[in-house]
Amino acid sequence: xxxxxxxxxxxxxxxxxxxxxxxxxxxxxxxxxxxxxxxxxxxxxxxxxxxxxxxxxxxxxxxxxxxxxxxxxxxxxxxxxxxxxxxxxxxxxxxxxxxxxxxxxxxxxxxxxxxxxxxxxxxxxxxxxxxxxxxxxxxxxxxxxxxxxxxxxxxxxxxxxxxxxxxxxxxxxxxxxxxxxxxxxxxxxxxxxxxxxxxxxxxxxxxxxxxxxxxxxxxxxxxxxxxxxxxxxxxxxxxxxxxxxxxxxxxxxxxxxxxxxxxxxxxxxxxxxxxxxxxxxxxxxxxxxxxxxxxxxxxxxxxxxxxxxxxxxxxxxxxxxxxxxxxxxxxxxxxxxxxxxxxxxxxxxxxxxxxxxxxxxxxxxxxxxxxxxxxxxxxxxxxxxxxxxxxxxxxxxxxxxxxxxxxxxxxxxxxxxxxxxxxxxxxxxxxxxxxxxxxxxxxxxxxxxxxxxxxxxxxxxxxxxxxxxxxxxxxxxxxxxxxxxxxxxxxxxxxxxxx
Length: 499
Ligand SMILES: Nc1ncnc2c1ncn2[C@@H]1O[C@H](COP(=O)(O)OP(=O)(O)OP(=O)(O)O)[C@@H](O)[C@H]1O
Ligand SMILES: [Mg+2]
Prior knowledge:
Layout: E1 4-15, E2 18-29, E3 33-37, H1 44-52, E4 59-64, E5 67-69, H2 74-79, E6 82-85, H3 97-101, H4 115-128, H5 144-156, E7 162-166, H6 174-189, E8 193-197, H7 201-207, E9 210-215, E10 218-224, H8 230-238, E11 256-265, E12 268-276, E13 280-284, H9 291-298, E14 306-311, E15 314-316, H10 321-326, E16 329-332, H11 336-340, H12 347-352, E17 360-361, E18 364-365, H13 367-381, H14 397-409, E19 415-419, H15 427-442, E20 446-450, H16 454-460, E21 463-468, E22 471-477, H17 483-490
Parallel strand pairs: 3-8, 3-9, 6-7, 7-8, 13-20, 13-21, 16-19, 19-20
Antiparallel strand pairs: 1-2, 1-4, 4-5, 9-10, 11-12, 11-14, 14-15, 17-18, 21-22
Adenosine-5'-triphosphate binds at residues 15, 18, 20, 38, 40-46, 87, 384-385, 394-399.
């Protein structure tokens, strides 16, 4: 029998109007990878915060290594060897990878931090993980995958016994997930216990030994991964059977609405493509290939160096996001925290802010209209909140992402850019987003979609453009869709028929 290293006993956490965790109990065995899953807002991140001492539970106890705690503090958690990698990055963007890894650590040389020494030790850690990261670069300039690895190195450098990872793979692509899994397996070999949160269920079958499912803050069950399948897991999470497929749509792709010619800027070179009415045009590529960079140039968030952009055949000069919104382009960014929503403001405020004109009559804001719109999106995406007046900061990660969607969609743009639209979104809500994308194109709008989820990209797009290191390496039509072929193009392979 394996040892129980951690027990959660009857933990409850109340916030005003919400019971985030509801008498939750389960055990984690020493040395296992224990997955924790549940829909957006189920209470996963809140539980993690009670384990790390970031918040105090309303009731219940936590038992670690046989010691019982009615409340953790960050200091106690650290002493017990609990390390956490949070859903939202906690790195300091302006300082180097090495400094981030050893942030807050006292050095033997008194107040002077020996940067070279830290860089050497950071490099050692990265070498051990077999990843190449420039330790002296500010983390701001690293890819999301590398930032995630820095987060892990930071936790591992503290000699953790229990490592909790809250959606570590959300910003990663397939090959980067492999790197992360290698690191996780190595940690497991060293006897580290891992609690692993993810909405990518297929990963759990690869990496987890057991899984605990939560719903509405409460315990649903714990299963061995070997004894359960995907369908059952989804039913446990949702409390009902859910169909998983890419919904079909009825739409005739029409005239050209957007044309980009020889675009240079933000690291991208010589990119040309056209988008048509009623079309979903997908963009494939590895993380860091330059897809988000391209979308940001089109949206006016970053400058275009040269090239031309036409909307309905007329050249437009988009110099800022305001110009793009005027021109009928909406953008759902991948990084919700930095660009997506105003966290201190309410759900309602965020929903209407991009299209205030539509919510006013004369000089006055039409509050009823605002409420109706916000309510509509809350229902559509099942945004979990006690009230539309809730500040977005207090929502769960996935529910914040849903507000980002609502904010852009309520602006009613003709062309909508979806950048990783379902990252961190639970299976049920994913289906709603796909349906909504279909509704948009069926009503004559057009979509540019960046996604690192290949089945999703192929399931939803009419055509896919592949970007590799800032250049277009292929354009693939639906009839030619083939995951391996596209992955090959995404890693710099050449298109069929050319050499
Ligand atoms: N500080 C807070 N104030 C008010 N409500 C909160 C606060 N923190 C969390 N909640 C609520 O608690 C519930 C659980 O949130 P939590 O972040 O734990 O969900 P989650 O399972 O991690 O979801 P996701 O998959 O979206 O990350 C949600 O309804 C959320 O709105
Ligand atoms: Mg969460």
